[in-house]
Amino acid sequence: MLSLKRGFNSFLERVMPTGLYPRSLIIIIAPVILLQGAVAFLFMERHYELVTKRLATAVGQDIAALIELRAAEPGKENELRLERIAREKLSLLVEFMPPQPLPPTRPKPFFSIVDASLLREISDEVKRPIWIDTVGRSNFVEIRVDLGDALMKVLAKRSQSYASNSHIFFIWMAAASAVLLVISVIFLKKQIRPILALSEAAESFGKGRDAPEFKVKGAREVRLAAVSFIDMRNRIERAMEQRTTMLAGVSHDLRTILTRFRLQLAMLEESPEVEELNRDVEEMSRMLEAYIAFVRGDGSEAAAATDIPAMLDDLKRGAEHHGVKASVETHGQPTAMVRPDAFRRCLQNLVANATRYAKRISITAVHDGRKLEVRIDDDGPGIPAEMREEAFRPFLRLDESRAQEAGTGSSGLGLAITRDIARSHGGDVTLEASPLGGLRAVVRVPA
């Protein structure tokens, strides 16, 4: 039983649409269709067949009476009199013809309750071989009865033989259902609109963009979710603001101390020891800036349409300034909605890392209208596959001796800052093997 339930749930997950709006439409439309089908079946099975049975029985009794009257008084004159009586009193067009075989049965519709009911009821009344045609004529039902010495041909109006106005019921039922469905769709759109607004606000906030203001409206549960989101967003923004304010004070105090060190060193006579101390102070200053930048982030910057090819050309010139051969290739739309300074810093960290350890780098950008992907390849030593994810951990140095080379200023935060910026845009950064033989860094962000 449990496996059957799981299989049914799995089947529903495969066939059901993923969106809330189409799922809600199915929830509304499916019961209506099932109800309409049940009502139509009951109508056809009960009312429609009952009315048809009664009408067919009446026609069969009229035909049986005419046959008995003909048998009681044979002759052509009596047949003409019966034809006139049938036409004037019974609304039947009757013709007594010379004996001949009954025509072959014409193909009937696959679902023909009328034919089955007519044939059954008239046969029960007449008790003779008969042939019925409900297909050939538009306004009449043709009935032929084999009398042995003659063939009786009867044309009866369709409304006289079976219920022919049932289409009015189906039209009314379909029209009422259509009106109800239109009202339901309008109401459903109104109920889903606040959910879509909340989703757009959450998506914008998750991408690091200014979430659009939206009114808290809709059902009680939707309003509660919207209020919770607004409270969460405000708490996050307050926490980021408090952290930035605190770090601004800390950085000011530390910069004051470093400035004092520089002044004291400047007052000393030049010597190898003083030069070494100056390098240490500069190293401490760079590390301090990296730490503060990592913790502070760039959440306060607003997203704007940014010229990606121009940004990549600037990064290329910077790499070439350090003696590295660089190339840039772009595909798709030239602009993307990103935070310009933050995104430049994200790419700059990757380019600087490649420049430090490689002699050749290649920068490729692809923008398909929905997401922006920037690939930075180099021919350096690369990073082992098992350590590529570890490289994003803050303060981690994969090569201590290389990281501490003079002038590198490595603090173990470059890749951590890069991933932090990419994720604040709603994207991510991954490391792969490069076709150039070194490392490939891939930045993907929605744009």
How is this structure best described in words?
It catalyses: ATP + protein L-histidine = ADP + protein N-phospho-L-histidine. Its main location: membrane. It holds the Pfam family HisKA. The chain has 447 residues and is of the alpha+beta class. Among the domains are: 150 residues, Beta-Lactamase (2-Layer Sandwich), CATH 3.30.450; 145 residues, Heat Shock Protein 90 (2-Layer Sandwich). The protein has 12 helices and 11 strands. The strands form 3 sheets. The protein has a 5-stranded mixed sheet, covered by helices on one side. It has a 4-stranded antiparallel sheet with strand order 1-4-3-2.
List the helices and strands and how they pair.
Blueprint: H1 2-15, H2 20-72, H3 76-89, E1 92-97, H4 113-126, E2 130-133, E3 140-146, E4 151-157, H5 158-161, H6 166-206, H7 220-266, H8 272-296, E5 304-307, H9 308-321, E6 325-332, E7 335-338, H10 340-357, E8 360-367, E9 371-378, H11 400-403, H12 414-424, E10 428-433, E11 439-446
Parallel strand pairs: 6-8
Antiparallel strand pairs: 1-4, 2-3, 3-4, 5-7, 8-9, 9-11, 10-11
Helix pairs in contact: 2-3, 2-4, 2-6, 6-7, 7-8, 9-10, 10-12
